[in-house]
Amino acid sequence: MYLFNTDGLKHTDVSPKDTVPIFLDEDFRVIEGPSYWAIELAQKRSRSIETLKQYTTVLARFLQWRDDKGIKAMSWQLTDEDVINAYIGYLINNRDFEGRPSNKTIEDYIATLRYFFKWATEKGYRHYWNMELKKITVQIQGSSAMVKTKIQVEKRTRIGNGSTTHVARERDKFIHRENIPKIIELIDDVVYAFIVIVLWKTALRPKELFQLPYMGTGLNAGLKRYRDEELSDLKEILFRFESKGKDRDIKFPPDVWSIICRKWMPERVKRAARYQERNNGKMPPNNALFLSENGTVVTPKMLRDNFNKVAKDPRCPEKKITPYMFRHAFATYFVLDRLKQYNSLGKAYVYNAVIDAELREWMGHENIDTTYKYYVHLVNRYFHNGLLDVLDDPVNKEIFEAFEKLYF
């Protein structure tokens, strides 16, 4: 990573500053976000040249640390609270003989980094550091550190190299697969139990989920009601749907469609009759697979409300349930199981194109390596802190068995 000063604003009326910092990676490519930030800072008359230098130097040190860790300055957007805490641990454990940087200096460093990432949020750059926090301070004791806020003080635990992790928050980011049978048990309308199974096995977004047809047409003609004798030989089924303005395909899991055919389709027929009664004899559209108990076509809001209701039940093992959490859990466990398969769990990051391609196909992401890298680092943090179950056999079979036992 390189930090250069240019004379880009020297002869303009915007600012009297002689130089503007610009961030370049090791291949001398401009690192866009940090460079735009520096230019915007330089254009503010309230920022002296010395202040500009201090701000950009702090960011440059952080980006260089990323390079040294092998996670690349160009990927600065892959930053969350754990990355920041790892950086704090690095600063603490690499102080010079005079104890520099001091605790106060480290606090200033983190405040500057937060200022940059807050700016990035406002400019539309996606990253993973929670910008809803109102105020940030750094609490340092010995060789450990934690970031505290006015609105949120969380339990953390020390790991490996002096970095820290948010134990409580990590547990609340996604649905643990061992909790899915209990969640299904608490659902009071079976349609949402079917939706849980689909979300768990496909990582679909809500708007994608509700494009699943009762009777597919065209390329989706394979999504239909099969006879029982056909289900034993059912293969993956093409599902094409609109996603963020583009057409996307996945291979819909045959075990999920099989349970839909055997268990949900007969129930949908009953609910379709209720829909017909409520709508002057009109049948529900064939492109709507999911109907509520009174025959209403299920909407994303109805799904969110039902999940919220389950999460509020004191018997629920998860504090929060959202459709996105199932998608996040899908990717997390997908990477966990693949890393275990390749004997790479808990080890230093190495790009695996096979896993990356398969994961991106399910998630619908286009950026090569980015999604995979994020989840590898996430899984390893979870793994080191005992937040994931590492099983020889996936619990999908147990989930299906619990589902059928409860409802059929």
TrEMBL record:
Coiled-coil stretches noted in the UniProt entry, renumbered to this chain:
none
* Taxonomy, superkingdom: Bacteria
Core-binding (CB) domain sequence ranges? 18-121
The record's Gene Ontology biological-process terms are: DNA integration; DNA recombination
Which Gene3D superfamilies does its entry note? 1.10.150.130, Intergrase catalytic core
Q: Tell me the keywords, alphabetical order.
A: DNA integration, DNA recombination, DNA-binding
Q: Which GO terms describe its molecular function?
A: DNA binding
UniProt KW Glycosyltransferase keyword: no
For the Tyr recombinase domain, which residue ranges apply? Answer: 170-392
Fetch the InterPro entries from UniProt: CB, DNA_brk_join_enz, Integrase-like_cat_sf, Integrase_catalytic, Integrase_recombinase_N, Integrase_SAM-like_N, Tyrosine_recombinase_XerCD
Protein name (database record): Recombinase XerD
Origin organism of this chain?
Cytobacillus solani
Query: Lineage in the entry?
Result: Bacteria, Bacillati, Bacillota, Bacilli, Bacillales
